[in-house]
# Entry
Amino acid sequence: MGNESDRGASPLVCRRDVERAERDRLSTGSRALLPVAAALFAAGLSAQLTHVIPDGMASAAGGSANTYPWGTPASGLPGLRVLSCYDSSNFTTANITNPILITRLRWRANDSSATWSGGVYTFATVSLSTAAVDVSGVTTTWAANHGPDLTMCYAGPVTVQPGAGSGAGVPGPFHVDVLFTTPFLYDPQQGDLCIDTEYQGGAFVGGSLVSLDVDNSGSGKASRVYGSTMYPNANGTTQNHGLVVQLTYTPMAANTGNVVINEFSYDDTGIDDREFVELYNADAVPVDLSGWQLVSYDIGGLNAAYAIPGGTVLAPGGYYVMGANVPNVNLVLGATNLFENDTESLTLLDGSSAVVDSVVYEAASGPAPPGHGEGEPIYPEHVAVDTHETSWSRLRDGQDSDDNARDFRVARASPGTTNDAPTTLSYKEAGDGTAPGTTVPGWYGGSSEPVFTDPIAAGIPSSPQGGNVLEFPLGPGDDGTAWMEADPQVGSYFRAEVYLDASPLPIGQQRAWSIGVRGGTGTPFVVPDPTWSSPVGSNKNGNRGVAWTFVVDGGNGTFPPSATLYLLDHGDGGEDHVRLLTLPVTGSGWQTLELHVTGQRCVATVAGVCYHRLVHWTEGDLYVAHGASTPTARRPLYLDDVCLQLRDDVVNPVGLGCQGSCLEQNFFAHTLDSGPTRERGAGTYAIEVPGTTARVTYACVLSGTRTGLSTTSTMTIRAVDPMGKPGAILRGPMPLLAVGAPTPNRNEGPAWWAADLRTAGNGAWPLPTSTFFLEFAIDQNLYLPIASEEGGANAYSPEQSTIWFNGTSGWTQMSQGRGWAWAFVCEDDTGDAQADTTSELTPGSTAVLVLRGGSATTTTSTGFGIGILSTLPGAVSMAPFGAPGCTLYADPFAALVVTAFVPTNGLGEAQWLLPIPNTPSVTGLQLYSQWLASDPGLNPAGFTTTSAIRIEIQ
# Structure
């Protein structure tokens, strides 16, 4: 089709007036989109796709052509405006049924043999909207065609690229390309799509042009409104007229995506004028927040509702801050008191009022509103000091376990920026040589940070380490918290000299502190009640994780004064803590406290005694919290020689100048489960033998096989002491004797054997009278040991995993315990051989590197191995060298020393003494140590690797 050529006169319009008119047409919602859109483009959009409209025209030429809008210089016209309307079926029939973010448009040349040189329209605009009318009902009243989301997506020069057609019937090239500066969010479910293009007469500079491809199939998929001779008014409309356009778009989330309440602060000092909530999009696609609401509830009902404006799009990895008087606010909610300062929920609702995310905070103050929050609520209180701002923050951006108590910690406030803290693998601080009053680096507090202090000037004795100590002062109120700013810990080791101030208090007064790992607490620290001496529900202490807690109580006339050190497992907080240790303290003084918590096991040390306990799993910080019931009971908390190591469950980096004093139990052995039997294959299994068990004369283990027992199947029993050290072999290798005729591929048998543990083979080992562990090493593909109380044909039950012992009073079922024992070789590099160091590493000291355990380090003369001490870490799989599952974590190519060893004592240990030069130049040097232990027959290489040690000379 040719140009429309109505030539009625029309006054010229200044270009600035056009721009101003277009800006005035922008809705509030589209303005709200602009900063978010800029962030999208700054970060780079992912998952961009293309689609050609009208649908079906991607590889077919249209049946018509037209020079409007990019095929004519519009000479003699006051301007040209073309609004193309496309039916939503152009998208839905192509399975585009969810919202899309359109970022680019390209127009196609007509199918012909023409050539053209192109040119530039010096200034044009491209605007999009969801149509307010059906495609068949477009009108010459421009504004009546547009919905309220009208958005100017581009304003500037538009280039027509030179090119040539390939002949009739062959679709031409896309030769006009407009990349949006502001993307447009289009939802096919909400209506048809309008594409509105406009420029003034005389805007084109250049050479020849070509007509554009048009679909005029009569299918009703598109129509247009055009203004030419009557510009800026419209000349008329055309049905079944669809300019062929390619859209570039990003699919939006099919639902609410993965948007979470990422950070919030609901209470601050003064008039509560710095409150906020931060949303975060953890999804890979943008999410439309239009029409969403943030609402707050308490037990009495709705308190506040805050609506997010239309056109608001949250980019992948983007933040959206709602609040007042804090940085990076996207939506100002008000000036003060946005949220309640007691038990409350913050709930994010999508446009259909469905719950997207919900957080309940300050459950210590009262009952939570029903139906809100996820999992356990956040228990403790929080108050941000205006000059020292903090917030409740997810442990990492977007990390959501659907348990509020586990997902949030108090942290430095960071609205509009990441919650993620830097990874800290180790920390050691004594503060000697630093001026008293200097802030201790690496810590942040709820109201103030710790400082270095001279203990004599503070009125307390010198610490065993000497020099300055770390003072954790109380803040403006009667409480204080501080924490190491590090990536949340899964496994951690902490040690410090701690001053236990047991000085008495008047009746009715209390003071307390907690030092915890893998957890956190609120900013106010309420004196805990570990003994539950008060009514249930009165303990409003907000700790999480595992903590040493010291409480000094002046008594109340009925209960005497006391000073008590507790080890508490707080889990994810609340009032269900577990007392792991209760130790009375009779006088003030310094004490070395240690905590090593990894997985569900805890090794705690006080007064040189090691305690092993099972704990709940949580993740969090190293934190210090303290408080008092009255101002007269207030005391600072003093620490010295503070050490923190973040330790992985699998490869356990130790050393770093603060190795613990416990010989830690190995928690990686398979245990004899009491649940459904599972095939584990050859490996090592362990069972705890309590000290109350009658002395064992015989043991019987029933075990099924999948294909029957080989005549070479054996089992070996080793005793392992409660500290995790392997002892001599008690019995074995012993053949497993088949009973009956196992059917192939059936779990039948059983196999059985008996061992007299009092006359153990391979050298006598007196059985301990206290708790110890039996380790069973099976070399065939067996099921877990099983047994049943019934005899005869029913003596085998695949649902029961137990061991039976014959003591002085007959056969007794042996319940499986916690399974702390040595582990299977090369399984996650914590195998039969394990390396550690028992020394503090400083210039002039001697490191004692120890290899222990495993068949390679028994007292036979054939055991040997190789030790590597390297300046660089490694991560080299040993599988290509014949040792599958083993890894070298000490780089052998950067080794300072490679040495051979043989076992030197009855526990199968080998020691390597490493003198450290007595020169300051070695301070801060990091070394990496690992052992290779011989184990012929284990694998083709005949070697296993130990866990790794990373050593830092302090």
Observations:
- The first helix runs from residue 15 to 25.
- The chain has a mean pLDDT of 75.
